Here is the input.
Amino acid sequence: MPPKKAEKVPQLKGAEAEDLIENYLVEQYRPFAVNDIVQNLHNKVSKTNATKALDALVAQDRIICKLFGKAAIYVCKEQPLVIPDGVEEKDITIEAVNQLREECGALNNDVNEWQGQLNQCIKDPSNKELLELIAHRKQEIQETKEKLDKLEKESKPENTEMGMILMKHDKVIDKAIKQRRRIMFEAVSLVSMAQGLSNQKAKDEYLVCVVGHFHLFCLQRVY
Here is the structure.
């Protein structure tokens, strides 16, 4: 089936378009070009009908039109100040407006702070999730404790003693190997001088042979 065509929004014209545009300019209380008005009203009025309505509003002295080169800018006429009940006109001063702005800014800061705390609360786990997490951690701790108890029960004193003996012998063997290695290099140096091995290649071949025998000797001593 072919896709359904989007229903067209009925476009206003005449007096309806004039009232809509005038109300929009009063609400926004700022200047607009005809293209901006049509776009901001979501094409409820076509550009042609909007131009006619704007010209009619200007002719009726309901709005003001200013020309900037070829561009026509439209704005509503100055609106009378609407004073709320319980407020006198003398109370409306620059100082009062600035104070209200400061209070409004402080309120916005409070709103942002509370919004941040709310977002943090949403990220944090709920009470139910915390209880489940605590129960899970307790179970893990209990299982770990049981494993440690089992290892302690299965461990034998002789195994610990044997391990200490092996570590002690390992240190002795390591120390002996280092001493023999130092003796070996000193011996190789003396033999090289005695045999006149001035050629580096001959020294390397002789050293490889001696080192091989040395490692074999060490392995025999260990095993």
Q: What stands out?
A: The chain is about 70% helix and 5% strand.
